[in-house]
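re: ur question from earlier - yeah i can do the single chain one, its not a big deal. heres the input i used so u can compare w yours
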Amino acid sequence: PDCAGVYYGSSWTSDCGCVDADNSGDDCDDCAGVPNGSSALDDCGVCDGDGWSCVETSIDVPYDSDVAIAGFQFTVSGATLLGASGGDAEAAGFTVQSGATGIVLGFSFDGATVPAGSGVLTTLVLQGDPSGFALSGGVLTDADGITLDASLDNDGFVYCSADDDADGTCDGLDDCVGAYDDCGECNGGNVDQDCA
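and the output i got, formated as tokens:
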């Protein structure tokens, strides 16, 4: 008898056990080729994958600067960078380039700038698990090509040229560097006086 107990039968014994004659014998192999193994394809079709390899995530890179931005550069880590576009950089006519190393570079061939203020500088498209996403190596430059002493973390770029009156508003965006008097005049002399 064959392995199925059939006299003159055609079943045969493979790594998967007793199989029909037309069976290749690897029908019980998992995706890694292990007979009766436990490996399986994830939602992205990757054997023993984590389900993230085909997932794309968009992440905005904000900025807050009281000086117009003429260029920027930073490095993305934690997931595969597919590209960067949009935001105020694109609206200003910047060329934004990104590479396989995770470096993003934005500038204008025409000398355009992103106006002082706050918003979304650019939007990143990442592939893979974004939980380890990080921004580092940030550089901002002004219209004169001077590197600004900006900070960069996962919440974006921040640059404040000065806050001489310590009111929490950068001087470049502050309507009044100093204090308003009783008449609403910036650094006016009317304190406790009539404003007629």
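The chain has a mean pLDDT of 89. not sure if urs matches, ping me
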